[in-house]
Specification:
With 337 residues, the protein is an alpha/beta fold. Helices cover 45% and strands 12% of the residues. Helix 1 crosses helix 2. The structure holds iron/sulfur cluster (SF4) (2 copies). The site of one iron/sulfur cluster has 13 residues, from helix 11.
Length: 337
């Protein structure tokens, strides 16, 4: 396994590490087996989230007696001081530890930026937890390139890691992530397999490693087989050949036409549909084997794909020229509403 230092944190992390979303579809016994495999292959960075239902709890139980062998990262959607303070304590309890290595503001969008970083915001609670030794480092995760840029430019001295989508299809963060690395902020690739849409996992991970934009990748894993597959890929992170670069270009062209990057530029929808979340849920349903969870989350949304009136306003704003109306029909067909 290859290891890299995570920016200025001093943490030495396996370049292919663990994303904890799929643990939700698992159970406690399987999580122990997954953590056994992570230990065996030296995948020492474990990322989870308050929002991944049972993921923190299962991982906490599986880490009993071996917490020190891993670097633990989690995150919270709380944007205010009180909410974040509570969430840090819940994460500590769930993960059965007295410190968390990296605590992240989860999926921060521009609209929440001032609240999270301003007085009485979530960042204050994280800074306080860090001073008390409850957490060791502070990070952010985002899907919006504008939010990522702003955080690096304005909060570069206060944040130590950034997590952003990066894969063969989603390279929109390339320059900004390289800038982050140049400033000593660690970069973590979420969705390295483009949300389960890339068939050749080895190629996907080699592409990221060769990019120079990313320190570590955290593919989601919910089984020992997935850990083994990614561990085997980690042994072959060789540079890409000309032929393979062309293959990546072809994948980008073919998949990119129908691939939502969750940038949010299409908003606002005329009837209030949260367009990227609709696409996200159908992806969870089809690619992550999280059907019940995706259906529950989808039904809880205020507006559904089936409400689209076909005005086309969103498509004018999508920088990737996605056929949003056609894609939403597909989502509505899948969920039945
Ligand atoms: S086309 Fe549909 S999704 Fe797009 S803005 Fe109009 S109503 Fe909303
Ligand atoms: S539909 Fe287009 S504009 Fe909207 S979030 Fe997805 S990629 Fe961005």
């Amino acid at each position: 396994m290859k290891y890299k230092e995570l920016g200025k944190t001093g943490l030495k992390c396996a370049v292919i590490s663990f994303g904890g979303i799929p643990i939700q579809r698992s159970d406690a016994a399987n999580t122990v087996a997954v953590v056994d495999a992570l230990e065996k292959y030296g995948m020492n960075y474990i990322d989870t989230a308050r929002g991944y239902t049972v993921s923190e709890e299962y991982l906490g139980a599986a880490l009993e007696g071996r917490r020190e062998k891993f670097i633990l990262a989690t995150k919270s959607m709380s944007r205010d001081y009180e909410g974040m303070k509570k969430d840090v304590e819940i994460s500590l309890k769930n993960l059965r530890t007295d410190y968390i290595d990296v605590y992240q503001l989860h999926n921060l969008a521009l609209k929440d930026y001032d609240k999270a970083f301003g007085p009485g915001g979530a960042y204050e609670a994280l800074a306080e937890a860090k001073a008390a030794g409850r957490i060791r480092h502070i990070g952010v995760t985002a899907h919006s390139l504008d939010a990522l840029k702003k955080m690096i430019e304005e909060q570069g001295e206060r944040i130590e890691t950034v997590m952003f989508p990066y894969n063969i299809v989603e390279t929109q963060g390339d320059a900004v992530l390289k800038e982050a690395r140049a400033r000593g902020i660690a970069t973590i690739a979420m969705k390295p397999m483009a949300g389960g849409n890339l068939d050749d996992g080895k190629l996907a991970l080699r592409f990221i490693e060769a990019s120079g934009a990313i320190d570590i990748s955290i593919p989601g894993m919910g089984s020992v087989e997935e850990v083994e597959r990614n561990a085997s890929a980690a042994e072959e992170l060789t540079p890409l050949t000309e032929e393979e670069l062309k293959t990546c270009e072809t994948i980008r062209r073919e998949l990119g036409n129908h691939f939502c990057r969750r940038c949010g530029y299409c908003a606002p929808c005329t009837v209030g549909i949260d367009i990227p979340s609709n696409f996200l849920m159908v992806n969870y349903l089809r690619k992550y084997d999280l059907a019940d969870w995706a259906r529950a989350r989808y039904s809880g949304m205020a507006h559904h794909a089936g409400e689209c009136i076909g005005c086309g306003e969103c498509e004018k704003r999508c920088p990737y020229e996605l056929p949003i109306r056609e894609m939403l029909k597909d989502v509505a067909g899948e969920f039945g509403v």
